[in-house]
Amino acid sequence: MHLLTLENLERKDIENILNDAIYFKKNRKSENILKEKTVALIFESPSTRTRISFDIAVNELGGHSLTLNTGETHVSKKESTKDTAKVLSRFVDVIVARVKEHSTLEDFTKYGNVPVINALSDLSHPCQILADLLTIKEHKNKLSGLKFAYFGDGNNVCNSLILGCAIMGMDIFVATPEGYEPNEKFVKMAQQIIDKQGEGSITITNDAIICAKDADVLYTDVWVSMSDKNKNIDEVLKIFPPYQINEKLLSYAKKDAIVMHCLPANRGMEITDEVIDGEQSVVYDEAENRLHAQKAVFKYIFSK
User: Fold this and answer.
1) Is residue 294 annotated as part of the catalytic site, yes or no?
2) Which structural domain, as residue segments, surrounds residue 20?
3) Residues 145, 95: one domain?
4) Tens digit of pLDDT for each residue in 267-288?
5) Are strands 201-205 and 147-151 parallel, antiparallel or unpaired?
6) Which residue in 1, 26, 177, 240 has the fewest CB atoms around it within 10 Å?
């Protein structure tokens, strides 16, 4: 059982993961799901929340974590991903990988024989979204029927949010500049889920106000991430400001709307200090929930 994206999860799967995460949040060191298990944590790019939360999660679940940073292995350099996957499978019980290219994860699942968890790729960030859904549930007491509004770049986080919100029956609005829309594959998958369930909706727009109006949740991410080497920063600074979550944009949302950001944040760019530090911001709850949601992911993986 792997977790590369959310596309193979059904609503009952996510509900079970969230319920387990709530339990783990109340009972930090109560389970030994990973007892006598070793987890390889592979990081091709720097990380704060992902690395710390996974490391602590493994240890609090009774396992042993082995962190491998860029330059410490031969992954995709002197050695093929195929060989690395086959060798790691002889040593560890699960691979958690934060990679630059999603294809690396696919190779791990193709050539290895242990579970693989996506800790971030250029295409998807499923563990972040499970923590996000947990945070929304905590603050709104539900998911189905909520209006979820995303602003900015249609990146890997946006792709996964679209799927996660669709599965949970939410009304998804995504506002991006023209040419920066989310991956069409994820939009189509989300629409298929919505059609099948008969609940929820998805709207992709270039109008930030339409997106913000009467929203229950406002969400943003960085306009330029570490992997966006091809983005023209001058163009970004010119066309992205209308999608900044600031007090004016927030005023269009419901009065009890919450504001989210997966962090790290470029304060003053995609979000203002007043909003991210304001009473409606739940970004630090969101960050903490990475730990609890990822514990629940381990339980899900090893229960299959």
Assistant:
1) no
2) 11-125+287-303
3) no
4) 999 999 999 999 999 999 999 9
5) unpaired
6) 26
Q: Which of 128, 153, 292, 294 is catalytic?
A: 128
Out of 2, 49, 51, 125, which one is annotated catalytic? 125
Q: Would residue 125 show up in a list of annotated catalytic residues for this protein?
A: yes
- Of 127, 158, 211, 262, the catalytic one is 262
Decide if 158 is catalytic.
no
Q: Is 2 a catalytic residue?
A: no
Q: Considering 122, 165, 221, 292, which one is annotated as catalytic? A: 221
pTM of the model: 0.96
Which is catalytic among the residues 98, 127, 158, 261? 98
What pLDDT is stored for residue 224 in this prediction? 86
- Sheet arrangement for strand 38-43: 64-69, 38-43, 94-98, 116-120
Confidence at residue 92, expressed as pLDDT on a 0 to 100 scale? 98
98 is annotated as an active-site residue: yes
Q: Per DSSP, which regions of the chain are E strands?
A: 38-43, 64-69, 94-98, 116-120, 147-151, 171-175, 201-205, 217-220, 258-261
How many angstroms separate the CA atoms of 100 and 25, rounded? 30
Active site residue 221: yes
Q: How many domains does the chain have?
A: 2
Instruction: Give the integer Cα–Cα distance in Å for 182 and 185.
Output: 9
Considering the domain architecture, whether residues 195 and 79 belong to the same structural domain is answered as no
Selecting among 107, 290, 292, 294, the annotated active-site residue is: 290
Mean per-residue pLDDT of the chain:
95
Q: Which residue ranges of the chain lie beneath pLDDT 70?
A: 73-77, 226-227, 229
